[in-house]
Design a protein that fits this description.
It is built from 15 helices and no strands. It has 264 residues and is mainly α.
Length: 264
């Protein structure tokens, strides 16, 4: 059962990511399985958690802009202290906030702020899969999730699974890149520490995030980053990491292109 749940979630994510990448907003869809998006939204607060989860999952297929109508209801359900929320519902609800708000053309700033607050809370969920999805969702909100950085930093050290650390490490890079002011030394310290992670995806995420966020303002931090890159990942057993590490070193030494502007 758990395998089927993970497979279904991964399939949904692939469909949505494919639509986002192609710029497709699904304007031609008026109904899915005989219901409009408004009708599906009304189903979210159902007492049957399977129906609520189904509604959120289906609404995402209408595209981010049309799914924005569901965001206030999803936030309300997640904030409701009287609801003992089903695990699968929590996972889908948390995931949907990042996909919808992060993919919408002009998301409402107030709703975005409320979503960040909710996601920060669920970054402490007792279930690892919820923490993982919360980290992913916060990363999709970019600079709007800046106040969640302390929570994300905690997730970069989560020992439950490398997937949480990878998602959180990537989120740090997404949230702090393209800023006029360099991130704090604390952000760089955390990313540098992940260069020595035992899991390949986490090390790769750390190198990429260091490229995205640019050069540290503090010369000592810059020197520490350069040393860590040479020590931890320049000789990594995986060639992909070695390639990205060389790019990071070139950037720090001022010999490369402005990678944060070129990378997706």
């Amino acid at each position: 059962m758990r395998f089927l749940f993970i497979l279904a979630t991964a399939s949904l994510w692939f469909v949505i990511e494919s639509n986002n990448a192609s710029g497709q907003k699904n304007p031609q869809i008026t109904q899915i399985r005989g219901k409009t998006v408004e009708e599906w939204i009304k189903q979210i607060p159902s007492k049957d958690p399977s129906k609520g989860e189904e509604a959120i999952r289906t609404i995402l297929m209408f595209g981010p802009d049309r799914a924005m109508g569901a965001v206030p209801i999803v936030i309300s359900e997640l904030k409701n202290p009287g609801r003992n929320l089903d695990l699968k519902f929590r996972v889908m609800a948390v995931m949907s906030l990042g996909i919808t708000i992060g993919g919408a053309e002009k998301p409402d700033p107030q709703l975005t702020s409320e979503a960040v607050a909710v996601l920060m809370r669920f970054s402490e969920d007792p279930q690892a899969i919820v923490r993982y999805r919360a980290a992913e969702a916060l990363g999709r909100l970019d600079q709007d999730a800046k106040r969640a950085i302390p929570k994300i930093i905690i997730l970069t050290k989560d020992r439950t699974t490398w997937e949480i650390r990878e998602a959180a490490t990537t989120a740090l890079g997404n949230i702090t890149r393209h800023t006029k002011v360099a991130p704090s030394d604390e952000v760089f310290e955390v990313l540098i520490s992940r260069l020595g992670d035992s899991a390949f995806p986490v090390r790769l995420a750390a190198v990429k995030s260091l490229i995205w966020v640019g050069t540290p303002a503090n010369p000592k931090t810059k020197s520490k980053e350069l040393k860590a890159l040479k020590t931890c990942t320049l000789t990594d057993s995986d060639p992909t990491i070695r390639i990205w590490t060389n790019m990071a070193i070139m950037q720090l030494q001022g010999k490369g292109f402005p990678f944060p502007k070129l990378l997706p």
